[in-house]
Input
Amino acid sequence: MADINLGVGAANSASGVYDIDNSCKLERLNTEKLQHTFDADPTNLKKNTLSIWFKRTEISVNQGLYQFGDDASGEHSYFRFTTDDRGFLRGNFGSNVQFLLTSQSFRDTSAWYHLVVAWDTTQSTASNRLKVYLNGSEITVFDTDNRSSVIPLNQDTPHGENGKSIIIGEGVYDISAYVAETHFVDGQALAPTDFGEYDADSGIWKPKQYTGTYGNNGFYLDFSDAANLGDDASGNSNNFTETNITAADQATDTPTNNFTILNTLHRVPDTTIKEGNTATVKTNNGWRTIVSTLGVSSGKWYFELSAGSEYTMIGVAGDSVYGGGGTWEYYLGSLTGSLGYYGNSATYFQDGSDKSPTNVSSFVADDIIGMALDVDNGKVYFHKNGTYQNQGNPNNGTNGYTLTGIAPYFLGLSTYQQSDQCEVNYGGYHVYSVSSGNSDANGYGNFEYAPPSGYYALCTKNLAEYG
Output
């Protein structure tokens, strides 16, 4: 079974003509979803297309991306991910059947994916009645392919049918993911090139502006209005009802500017990672370390952490220090090539040693701890609620801690105490309340404290310029 990956940096990291500014964070544990019930006659139930960009934040559990129609007992179709992370397209056109099961798995939580599902049941060849495209290419190899036996010629679909619903964030099961740029076109079976294109320089599949029509029951979700994330921007007023979604669920992590998040591929035990992979909750006592999905080999970078308690660490690790074997059970600074600032003992650890510095403060729950990482000069600076420790000054490069290990470097945290919730802010999405609102010099991120001069949020647009 092959994994489908877009690679580090994911969808378009280069500047381009078309940018997506916002996405919506969906959390399975909070039952967050968007739903619309169609109340007009469709243009054509035999032809329709759904285009959706998504970034998974949880793997190895049944999760549904979308569902058309009634619940599982009625006429419906849905796309979901299996426990081994394959894509699963199922429906009920008189009998509950599995249309397609992909051979590939969708396991890259660092990347944005683009899925296009196009229906045209007027096609004489059964395999042409349903086509699935990923990142611009049609998926043609499946572990299960029942199209020839379960999709009759000229079959009406429940996609846009008057009185039936569409749910984003559920397909029998709920999902944890970011979703962005979602189009539904009623009456046309379109190609992925209507919604995206390959970047001329990198060859990466990236979004482009859709300029076509939507049909009677089509819609376009761009998530640009935080107060109304279910707003239909197509002009059809097919607005969605939000379930457990608020303005705080709007994110700037998008297919055209992908932000780093915590890496769930590390499979850290005794720890729940949630809220778009920006929050962790411990279920038992014991050290657990999680680092960022994206690493850096040059440049200057900034992020923040709202501490779960004094038994929390913030820090950085070099390549291959964490992620393999049982390395997750070692706190930042306890392994060679890592460094961490510890709240309980007002110290920092590095390469297995307690450095016991002076002029360092302890911190407790809800303190905002910041880290400024200067890879170019090999220095690290920490602040507590805006005050840099050890009389450090990242603006002029004084009193920074010396960076060890080898590039790329990953930004992370360590937690110990059961029930503690720690919340990181890499800039694309955050849980804790930001009262002041500070971005970097390029306008990216939303932090409680201003990034030092020349330091940036860790996202693909900044990586393309400085990384």
Observations:
- The first helix runs from residue 147 to 150.
- Confidence is low (pLDDT under 50) at residues 1-15.
- The longest strand covers residues 47-56.
